[in-house]
Amino acid sequence: MLFVKRIRIGRWKTEEDCHRQMLKQLERQIEKPVKVPISTLSGLTIPGLSRKAKYPVNLQFWQLAALISASSRKVDLKEKSVRKILKLIQKPGKNSMQITQDPSLALLIFYLWENSKEAGPELEGLIADTYELLKSFIGEDGCLCYNKKEKEKRLVDTVGMACPFLIKYGIEKEEPQAIALAIKQIKSFYKNGFYKKTGLPFHSYDSLSLNKGGIIGWGRGCGWWAIGLMESYKSVRKSLNEKSNDDSLRTLEEYKEFLAECIEEFTQSLILAQMPNGAWSRHFYFDTVGDTSATAVLSWFLAEVKSIFNNDLAGESAQKALTFLMANTRQDGLVDFSQGDTSGIGFYSTGLIPLPMATAFCLRAYGSLKKI
Questions:
Q1: Domain ranges, residue 139
Q2: What is the pTM of this model?
Q3: CATH number of 197's domain
Q4: Are 207 and 152 in contact (CB under 8 A)?
Q5: pLDDT digits (tens, 9 = 90+) for 220-269
Q6: 13 to each of 16, 131, 318, 331, how far by Cα in Å?
Q7: Distant-in-sequence, close-in-space partners of 267: CB < 8 Å, separation ≥ 6
Q8: 46: buried, middle or exposed (CB in 10 Å: 19+, 13-18, 0-12)?
Q9: Which among 50, 152, 319, 324 is most buried, taking Cβ atoms within 10 Å?
Q10: Nearest-angstrom CA–CA distance, 66 and 85
Q11: Sign of dihedral through CA atoms 206, 344, 188, 315?
Q12: Chain centroid to CA 330
């Protein structure tokens, strides 16, 4: 069945044809999100063919978050989508109204908030609950952990999942502690979780021993870093543009400069790590197979760098990545060949599957680069 769906993959007459099919795919998946099963090191557990298929809720969070991020003009997110995801967000159990305890929820709420015309009572409640949830993940070093069972571990995933929400929450709700927490998270990971010779992140570091975990240049991990930097920068920049005469925003200006420096440095590192076919692999230094989930996010990041900072090299790199992504897009508009779900630090799936995240960020990259 998987082979059949890949027949004629990448055979597009024009970019516009591919883009139109991707938009149709986005509409279908927003209307009825595809559940993504957890993967194994040897490949994907195929739903329907194996009784062992599992669908962890946090994996659905960041898939749906990506879809919402690309859907601003296609779906009314004011009421329809909020109600649709309430059941997913709430913990299972009789009469339970408690939200699921996972930091990836913050990215979903961030994009829902960003793309809603206005935050109604339900969304406002989720926003407040999500901030309280994130505070419960703060460790002794003042940074967020990814898993409360391993409170000393600091994963690059958390930068992308939590920091954009914290920045927006701090600005919109006038809560400077939320902004400070996000910046501390980014600064601490940059200081302790990077290999400076390459300008690329490890998967994690230990807040007590400062030992690094995982590999340097995990593809989707670089994507999480990219999301954290760019979405945070855009929120800070927007706030400063709207309140340019407010002296109280001097600290925010400093944050903006720091984030811009990180973006510039990371851009250079990504361009050097890009493969000749335009892709980034699952493991930048150990793999030559492109990962569309990493490539889609990083192409969006570089397209934004081109748009915001007028960086032509970033724009050229983003275009090369889009060409690779188009070559890996099925005829139904679904981007294929993404790395499966990661089992843990140092344990990466070898399965290449379609992920909604790849299709969504490919659309965002295309829109940013073509200014549509």
A1: 2-370
A2: 0.92
A3: 1.50.10.10
A4: yes
A5: 999 999 999 999 999 999 999 887 656 667 889 999 999 999 999 999 99
A6: 8, 46, 20, 11
A7: 301, 302, 305, 311, 313, 314
A8: middle
A9: 324
A10: 14
A11: positive
A12: 22
